[in-house]
Amino acid sequence: MNSALIQQMLIYFDNVLIFVFLTTAIILIIAYQFWKNRNLPPGPWGLPIVGYLPWLDAKNPYLTLTALSKKYGKVYGLSLGSVYTVVLTDPKIIKKVFSRDSTAGRAPLYLTHGIMNGYGLICSEGDLWKEHRRLTFNYLRQFGATKVGPNRKKMENLILHHCLDFTDHLKTVGENTEIDIFPPLRHSLGSAVNVIIFGKSWDRDDKLWKRLQYFQEVAPKYLGVAGPINFLPFLRFLPKYQNIMDFILKGKEETHIEYQKIINEQSLILDKLNIQNGVTNNATNILQGFLVEKQNKSADVAERLYSDDQFYHLLADLFGASLDTTVTTLRWYFMYLAKYPTIQDEIRKELEDVLQGRPPSMEDLNHLPLTDASILETMRIRPVVPVGIPHGSLEEMEIEGYRIPKGTMLVPLQWALHHDETVWKDPEQFNPRRFINDEGKIEKPEHLMPFQVGKRMCVGNELAGMFLFFFGATLLQNYSITLSDPNVDMWGECGITLTPQDHTFLITPINKNVK
Length: 515
Ligand code: HEM
Description:
The chain has helices at 3-36, 61-72, 91-98, 110-115, 126-142, 152-173, 182-198, 207-225, 227-231, 239-277, 286-295, 299-305, 308-339, 341-355, 369-381, 414-418, 461-478, and strands at 75-80, 83-88, 105-106, 178-179, 391-392, 397-399, 402-404, 409-412, 479-483, 493-494, 498-499, 505-509. It has 515 residues and is α+β, with helices and mostly antiparallel strands. Strand 10 and strand 11 (498-499) form a beta hairpin.
């Protein structure tokens, strides 16, 4: 054989080898994809790397996800960037799934695992989460945020004190003029939150308090804009996102420095109380509760579960989770009452008939079905977290016969539940009476899930109920409210939370003295 022929044969052989190699690789990749996707829930296809993200309405993702649920059913899956996501829109399935230990994780997002590093309460998992959930739950109960219990009256009085601060302030600035009630509402409700968490509150014009409120208002919006980083973490290196990340990380650092100063103050106060009373559990706020619990732990547990980082993140989570959600819900509440003046008058009449001018108490709520129902209706029609707060699967599992891989983001889609036409007639109509049955009692369909359900259900739901009722009732007892612009947008802006667009009210005093 001449050498040219041999060379030709070798080239041919090489090409065959390359062809066989490539074909095998492609077959293996396809087989792997089939194996990886075996028995997953139905759902739309996406592009490599970005998945379904390009088709998600960036401003109203909950609308796209709700539309998809109509096509693919109550359990469907899709890829959002690198995160495989399963969306749930049936209350029974959500209850069943969220009652498992294996779904008590958080979704593998850059926000929870990257920015927050799994610290705090909202983003933590495992032992750290269990310990701080227990701590928070117990201290909230101990301080009176509970249906029954010896300290409930104390908590009611604390909140009422700040409600009166709110209406008193409106007297000085708002009567018969147009007013944005967001800042005074946030100050008064926030002051009650501060006392419960930090053991102190600040004057309206205090620089630090203004700064904390600023971060609280802006951070969720920034985190909303930075949303794609959650699914495509490499985006954080692009200049557009770098600025946002800088803002978030610097804000976090600045807040933690301030928290440390408050911790030092409260630590001295706690020491004094302990010496005075000769006992070691005198905690009067959550921050002190952390210090007491830490003292009572062995050195290795304290090091593992009670680090400074955990302390700062826990305080930030509690502050953010309580203030943002409740103030936003109340803002929607007042907007809807102003949009539906007849309902507003009927609620006020109910309050006048039952309370006869005295301040409300939680026991009254049983006799105030329309008031109670109007708060539920607000949380239904404009849930603060319309997409829901996602969980993460900690192991491979099965949901309704489908295989759910470990590390899946599980979304309880609140918007779909709260706007399901088969359950709620005219879901975009504000109609509190849908929650009142023929006997005049409150009846909540299982589709209503503003606090979600199961192992990670909102730990502050009792406290939230108190804030909403007291601030709502006190305002209505004192003022009638009208929107300055009756055509104001009622869809809001969706960052981490769904917040109303800027708006102002004309508030008119009710000519009755609250005793
Ligand atoms: C209208 C007011 C509120 C709404 C609608 C709301 C809603 C929610 C929702 C949907 C979750 C996610 C639950 C889950 O992951 O399954 C949550 C978690 C949480 N909420 Fe609330 N919340 C409100 C008020 C509060 C208040 C007043 C506090 C104060 C302590 C609070 C503290 C928390 C915390 C710490 C978590 C994380 C729980 C965990 O991961 O174990 N929330 N909330």
